[in-house]
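<context>
A single protein, sequence plus fold
<sample>
Here is the protein in question:
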Amino acid sequence: MVTGHPEVQAFQFELYLEGRRRPEIAAVMERVNARYRAAVREELVRNGLGDPDLAELVFLTIDALVLHQTAFGGAERTERAVAALRRLLRSHAHLDADQHADQHAVDPAGWSG
């Protein structure tokens, strides 16, 4: 996840912390994160997961995974966590699809599901 350019990721996290002292940097980092958030949200929507709270959770999870890999290494650990996240999202998408189908099913007696 981070193996290509870890120094770029480290610099980004250093900017996060600098933003605590300098609001102008915090504003820039918020704009950067807004683009990342939008990309995560769009990818989830493309895969049938349109919940904005879920998108925020996924964004923050990815951000934390990148931070930990940047700070401590352990690409294998990160890859295992990413694989687990993918499994959770697939499962959630499947459950959402089942619930959506149940909500739109019509009972033969005339009651909607």
Summary: The helical segments are 6-21, 23-46, 52-72, 75-103. The chain has four helices and no strands. The CA atoms of residues 18 and 25 lie 7 Å apart. Confidence is low (pLDDT under 50) at residues 105-113.
